[in-house]
Every structure is written in C-alpha cells, then in structure tokens.
Amino acid sequence: MARGFQKTMMTALGATDHVMTVLSVTDLTPGFRRIRFSAPTMIDGRETPTASYVRLWAPDPKEPGKVHQRGYTLVEPDAATGQVSFDFVLHEPMGPASAWAAAAKPGDTITASYYMFHKFEPPEDPEGYLLMGDPAAIPAINAILGVLPPEARVVIILQAHAPGDAAIPVTTHPGADVLWTGPGTGALAGAVPHRDWSNWYAWVAAEGAAIKELRATLNRVHGFPLSDIKHAAYWMRGKAMRLRKEAGPSAGETVTRDQPTTQPPFVPIAAANAAAPAAPRPRWRSQRGVELLGSLRWKLRAAGALQGLISLMQLAPLVLMAELGRRLLAGEGRWEVLSPLILWAIALYGAAATLSAGLMLWLHAVDAQFGHTLRVSIVTKLARLPLGWFTDRNAATVHQAVQEDAGRLHYMVTHAVPDVVAGIVTPLAVILYLFAVDAALAAMLFLPLIAFVALYILMMRGVADKLVEFANWTKRANAAASAFVEALPVVRVFGGDGRALRAVLDGQAAFLNGWQRPMAGRKVASQLAIQPPTFLLLITAAGCWRVLSGGMAPADLLPFLFLGTVFGAQIMTVMYGFVPLREAKQAARRIGLLLEEPELDRSRSSRELPPGPLGLRFDGVSFGYRPGKPVLRDVDLVLKPGTMTALVGPSGAGKSTLAGLPGRFHDVTDGAIRIVSGETEIDIRQLKPEALQRAVGFVFQDVRLIKETLRENIALARPGATMAEIEAAARAARIHERILAAPRGYDSVVGEDARLSGGEAQRLSIARALLADPPMLVLDEATAFADPESEHLVQQALSALVGRRTVLVVAHRLHTVTHADCIAVMQAGRIVQSGRHQELLARPGLYRDLWQAGERKSA
Ligand code: ADP
C-alpha cells in the first residue's frame, strides 16, 4: 500500500520509523529468504511478544521515492544485541518487499515502523488451535508453535502461492497436523475441514481478501464466533506483495512440491470435505456471553428505537423556537401564527420528558430483573463448582464477575444504549436541519471538529514509544523504591540517604515533564476547539459574513445559534459512548465463561454413610486438571480403618492432588474412590454432599479463617456445638491458652482483635477438625514453622487429632512419618513403592534415595 494517508495515520497514532541495517542474508529455501538486521532503536529491551510484527517500508522498484508497506513477523529478536530477523517470500512476479529482499546485501538499510506489538493471546485452554495463513505467515505460526504446550492439538492450514512453498520449514510440534492448499483467494476458506471445531481458537494471517473470505467461512460454515478468530492481513493482493494480479492454479487446487521436504504430503482437502459427514453443531464457551445478553436483545433494540424518537422529540421544540424567532423577525408577530408553534413545542417537550422518564423506569426494571437472574445464576454456579476450582486465580475471576462485570452490565442495560442512540440521532438531525437552512454555514461547523482531530493526531505522535519509555521508568522507580524500603533499617541505623531513589524519581519526573508539557497546550487547544463558545464564535463570525455578503437571511442565523453551539459536545458523546458498550460485552463474555465452568456431577449423590469404622479405597484412579494432561495415573491405594497412610515423593508428584480427591475437590477422570465399611463399598460420588463432608475432614497447610469470632471459626462444621465442646477441642489442639490471651477471648474476631500467627491458625484449624470429629482425615503435614515452640505445639495438636482415625497424610519430611502404617511413594502421578519405613529403606528405590538425600541435608 502506498505510503500516503495510511502512513500519516500510523505515524500519528504513534508509529515511529526505525532504520535497520542488513547484517546477513540466508536462503532457507530457494524462495524463502531470512535477513538478519541490526535494529538497535527498535529492539531496545522492550518486550516483543510472541508473533509480533512490524510494518516494513519497501521502495517501489518502478517509481523512485515511493514506498510500500507490509507486515513482517519478528524472528529471533535479541534485546542484548539489538538484532532481529525477518523472513521474505521471494515470488515471481515480485512485489516491492520481495524485490528489495531479493537484492539485499549486508550494509543495505530499510525503514520499519513499529506501530504497536500485537500479542498472541488465545483464550484460556481452547480445545485446539487452528492456525492458517500463507508463506508470509509461517514465521508467526512458527513463533506461536514455539509457545504452545506440547499436549495442545493444532491444525495448520497453509496456502502455497508457488511451487516450493511447501518446503519452507515449519516448526515441529507433537500435536500439529499440517495441510497445504493451493493459491487463490478462496482456497484457504475452502480448505477448512468439516468437523466439530467446538472451543477451538483460530489464528489467521494471510492476504487481505483471503482473510475476509476465511473469516466469513469460519463463522458461517464452521460456527466460529468472530471473537474466537484472531486475524491480521499481512498484505493485499495487487497492492503490496505483488504489483500485478497473480496468475496461478485456481482456487482450491493443490500444488505439487518441487523438491522433497519433511512436510506431510498435500491432502486433497476439497475432496475430503465432500466425503466428510456433516459435523454436529459446534459450541464455544465464549458464546455463553452472547447468549447471556440474548434475553435482552429485543428490549435493548426497542429502547434504542424509542430513544431515537425521544431525541427527535426533544430537538423539535428547539427547531420550533428557531422557527418562531424567524417568523417574529420576518414580521409575522401575530398570535394566530405563533400560538400553534408554541403549543406544539410545549406538547412535544412534555411528551418527550414523559417518554424519557418512562423509558428509564422500564430499563431500570429490566436491569433489576436481569441483574437478579445473573447474580442468582452466579451464586448457584459457585455452589456447584468443585472445591478444587477455587484457586487464587479463579477467586479473582469470581470477584471480577460479581463486583465489576455485573456493574458494567448494569450500565449497559440502563444507560449505554440510550446514550449512544441519543449521541448519534441528535447531532445527525441537527446537522441535517442546519444544512437545510444554510449549507455553507452548516459545513463550517465541521471546522472545529477537523481542528480537534488534527490536534489530537499531533498529540498522539510518538505515543507508542513514549508509553514504552514510561513503563520503563515506572519499572525502574518501583525497583528503586523497594530497594530503598528494604535498606531502610540499615540506613536508619548506619546512616545513608535515598540518593539512588531520588535520582530515579527525578529522572522519571523530568521524562514526564518533557513528554507532557508540550502536550498540555495541544490538549487544552483540542478541548477548546469543540467547546460551545468556539461554535458560538464561529457561527456569529461566519454567520455575519454570510448575512452581510447577502448569502443568507439574518433570521436564518437563529437555528444555528439555538442548535449549532452544542454540536461538538454531542459528537464527543458518541465517541465516548461506545467504550462502555464494548466493556460490557467483554464483561458479559467473562461472566458467560464463568457460567460455563464444568460442575460437579451430583445427580447420583443420594446415599448416606454406612455404619461402622470407615476406610477408603482408590481404584485405578486417574486425574488431570486439563484434558490430555494426566497428573495422576492409575493409582491404587487402600486406607484400612484406623490406620495412617503417608504420601511421600518429590514435589509435583501429585501428592496434594491425590489427597484432595476424597473430598471431591475434583472428580476423578478414570477409576473410582470408594468408602469402605466392612463389606459395604460406596463410590464417593454416590454419597450425599453432607455425608461426604462428615466422613472426611481436611487440615491443610494454608489455613483459611473466616472473618468471624474464634468460637465460630472452631464451630464451623458444627454450628450447634456447646461452649464446653468448643473449649475441649481448643484445649486438645493446644490453642485454648492463646485464645484466652486475645482481648475478647473466644469472642475475639479474626482480623480485628485476634491476629493469629501461622502456627496458631494451624492449631485453630486442628481444633475445628477435632470438633467436627470425622472418622477419616486428610492432613497436609505442616511445614516447619519459624518458631520451634509453635511447631512443637502443632505436632502435639496433630497427635491429638489423629487418634484412632483413618488418616491420609501428605508428608514433606520423611522423618515425621516413619511410624506410618503404610508409606506410598509417588512419582510423576504414580505410586511407585509402598510399605513400612523399614521395608522401604531395606530396598533400593526412590524412598531410600529420598531418605538418604534428607539425611545428607540434615548432616
Ligand atoms: P505435590 O503435592 O506432589 O507437590 P501437586 O499435586 O501439587 O504435587 O501437583 C501435581 C501436578 O499438578 C503439578 O504438575 C502441578 O503443577 C499440577 N497442579 C497442581 N494444582 C493444579 C491446579 N489447580 N491446576 C492445574 N495444575 C495443577
């Protein structure tokens, strides 16, 4: 694309030119050339996210002085040396960039604009990745393949433009299938296999027109929501890569490779598609957000239509008043002529106000109902999610959904649509009316807007680079501040000053000053340009000129004075109005994703606990947090009633994961966990939730206390417990004395007047478990606490708790479980050894290695 308007806009929006010097030229295949550049101003330590690309300005081979731009993916950017490579496809006929690359030699220079780096940001855990593009996209696809987890499923569809393209090296990935198709605008779109693409993520980079068609096909034929397709047009046919329209095999036709490669052979995709059975209607998790808003759609449309009418009705009295003025000036000052105008104005004004109030009331009612339904669904959902879902990150998701996203939806339902509609209808109606009154003067109302845009563009110049610089300063200032705070005790005792911090802060202030000060003037000027007084001044001056030069009747100035002055402010409302609408859509998407989280299946959970002492059996248990990534594999383990079983093994072996399964923190992927009492065995998924809760107690390292009294914290599982029972549990857990020492004893509130140390909180949670008195117990063995006194008390409390229960303990230090009835040694999700301490120690194996390593460490 010629460097003209687009270049100006890009520069205005912050693109900066970087001159790059060729260092070396390597042909990866005869038609695919990698050029390494020195680009110290571009690769200067800032982040270069995966698959980011820049615009390269290639000289026009025919017209000197003219340049063309194309997107190129950064290959192997190296911040330390300021070097980066770009891969060029050398085709016939060559476009400007290819022609430049074909002749490039070390020492040559070329400019690149880096507008903003584009991140590769797929949604969380998609079912798979569909990566599509042409040879120009291969560097980006390679970059993406480099960061995808090995278990990811990937389908890559590439379009060959010329024989030999299929030899271009594509990064190998264990889960990737690579298909090649032939040239032509529709070839990529036609190559997408018919299958169930539910929850897949599509990434597309190719020629502009091909992308347009591909997006439409992915959406209409294969069901992809447009939000799950990331696309970037790297070039446009006939504009950038090639100057002439290409001649080649027709769309959908496959090309033959001209040399052997490691690529899989071409697949006759069109034929395969024809033979494939119709795929089931696919579903995307992200669609839930759209469905969520679906119930509102007709209501919001109706509200928009009504608001359009209201806006016109609100405007009409002003038009009538202007008409009134014109007639008065024209000497038609008779009551019979004027009264209908006045009455109509009053009536319309009243009707518009009433309708507007009615609309607001109705929308608030709609919102109240929608908000209620939404919150109830979220709360219901939370109750049905497995406990293991509530990690810190997911807790933040819930927080955002309930607190912020629900609020954004409130704005969208009640205000956003009327605001945007009013913002569009009013200025449009005003300008149409004013054009009808006097086109020349009406046209002049655009002058302040043009000035505003020009000043804005000036203001945004170089912003991208400045923002990066700003982020660097912030990072530096934060680092200096934390270094200063860390050193503070030493500084206080031995003297010293915060010179380093002051220098950084001064530097940051100087940078901000240098950046913002020249902008301040433009900022004020751009704001001034669209203020009502500016329009008033313009209308008066230009209007007088029009009247004096005989182009317009004096009375015609009135409508402009009535309506033209707030024109600029109204246009701004539209520009700002779309932001909350977009945010609300994203909020709906996030809430939708939360509502799509898989729930715990409770459909069979109807049985009570069997009587008698309880044991537990893991039968061929497998589990993974993500499909295709097992964390536990085929685990068999028996916990006999009244015995203690210890899980040991290296970190990450799956001990904590296994220990959480008896409480249904997650459900097993395969196999079963059964509660055993004599001859009776019950799958824990068949137990009523309360029964399972009564059967298994948990004491974790990371203790969660609720913001209630200490008494309520202990009696959490048995709210009806008497004070005597609570106290007995606290004594046994060695926390009674500590509670009495708190300002209000058992009535002290956690986080207010009761602040417990780690060890104390641990003992409180043991008291909680003692009071609940479950027949089975899962313990995550406490790690060493800083103070030995506390550790001693925790150990005593634990001994009291274990008693004669059936215990599963996750042990981090082997010497604490040497007395266990059974020690199960885990490695990579499997139990690799089990037995008593002495037996295990006598045999060579992981346990003995771990034991010996522990001995060496403590020696
Ligand atoms: P251990 O207790 O033996 O240290 P874990 O059971 O904590 O091992 O972890 C086993 C594996 O499961 C690790 O690879 C860990 O990264 C992964 N893992 C643990 N918790 C989660 C989770 N909530 N989501 C995803 N992966 C997890």
Automatic annotation (TrEMBL):
Residues 302-583 form the ABC transmembrane type-1 domain. Its cofactor is FAD. GO terms for molecular function: ABC-type transporter activity; ATP binding; ATP hydrolysis activity; ATPase-coupled lipid transmembrane transporter activity; oxidoreductase activity. One of its GO terms (cellular component) is plasma membrane. CDD domains: siderophore_interacting. Its main location: membrane. It is a multi-pass membrane protein. Residues 616-853 form the ABC transporter domain. This is Mycobactin import ATP-binding/permease protein IrtA. It comes from Chelatococcus reniformis.
